[in-house]
Design a protein that fits this description.
By secondary structure, the chain is α/β, with parallel strands linked by helices. It has two domains: 194 residues, 2-enoyl-CoA Hydratase, Chain A, domain 1 (Alpha-Beta Complex); 48 residues, Lyase 2-enoyl-coa Hydratase, Chain  A, domain 2. It contains eleven helices and nine strands. The strands form two sheets. It has a six-stranded mixed β-sheet with strand order 1-2-3-4-6-9, sandwiched between helices. A three-stranded mixed β-sheet has the order 5-7-8. Strand 1 and strand 2 form a beta hairpin. It starts with a strand and ends in a 9-residue tail after the last helix. The model has no long low-confidence stretch (mean pLDDT 95).
């Protein structure tokens, strides 16, 4: 059985970590499999939104520490390249991504969720970065992304103390987009994905790039990028269809071009 599966329906690609017996711990093989699936998703115009979730009782407990228990230094560096490639593929996915998390969502699992554009969390979810308790650094982008999302002091407290956050607390902090009872998690994530699909895919992709650029670019340069994105959008079929649909008082039929 594949370690990571992909199911596509109604323009939504659902990516599932398929290692429930290990609480979807990220082994080297899982990292490679997820990166391959993400590359496939990124290349498919029929997928407008990606939903990332896990099989079993928990979304993902992070790195496979049993595998790492026998690592030599060279193994650590090799694994680092694999893990970094996985996170990079997720962050650079052209389509918007939604993490649907539940149960234990820790370490690299929490970093996967932080790397997505939006997050839906089931009630009872426990999220956190416990790496400092085993002598490791959260280095899948978690320290940086968390600080950007909740502020520096709060991020320091969460990383330093290894504190677990509940879904309700994540919602209050702005980490979690929506929360739902566990039985309704999948439906809530798909509902959110469908709402995103109602917007022009061209515009959503451009907006994603611009919002990400706002973290790293000075405002004058970011405004230049915004102007360039506007120029790309204004000549698209989606722009023409959107205006026509508005004037015809009907729902737009997006061309994704």
């Amino acid at each position: 059985m594949s370690l990571v599966s992909l199911q596509v329906k109604d323009d939504i690609g659902v990516i599932t970590l398929e290692r429930p017996e290990a609480l979807n711990a990220i082994s080297s093989s899982v990292a490679e499999s997820l990166r391959e699936v993400l590359r496939e998703v990124g290349s498919r115009p029929d997928i407008l939104v990606a939903v990332l979730t896990g099989a079993g009782d928990s979304f993902c407990v992070g790195a496979d520490l049993k595998e790492r228990g026998n690592f030599e230094i060279d193994d650590w560096y090799s694994n680092r390249r694999q893990i970094s490639g996985m996170f990079q593929a997720l962050r650079e996915l052209p389509q918007p991504s939604i993490a649907a998390v539940f149960g234990w969502t820790l370490g690299g699992g929490f970093e996967l969720a932080l790397s997505c554009d939006l997050m839906v969390a089931a009630e009872g979810t426990r999220m956190g970065l416990p790496e400092a308790g085993v002598g490791l650094l959260p280095a899948g982008g978690g320290t940086l992304l968390l600080a950007r999302m909740v502020g520096i002091r709060r991020a320091k407290e969460i990383v330093y103390t290894r504190r677990r956050l509940e879904a309700s607390e994540g919602l209050e902090m702005g980490l979690v987009t929506r929360s739902a009872p566990a039985a309704e998690l999948q439906a809530t994530a798909l509902e959110l994905a469908a709402e995103v699909c109602g917007s022009s895919p061209v515009v959503v992709r451009e907006a994603k790039r611009l919002i990400e650029a706002s973290w790293s670019e000075p405002l004058p340069r970011a405004l230049e990028l915004e102007n360039e994105a506007w120029a790309r959008v204004i000549v698209t079929e989606d722009r023409a269809e959107g205006i026509a649909a508005f004037n015809d008082k009907r729902s737009p039929r997006w061309r994704n071009r």
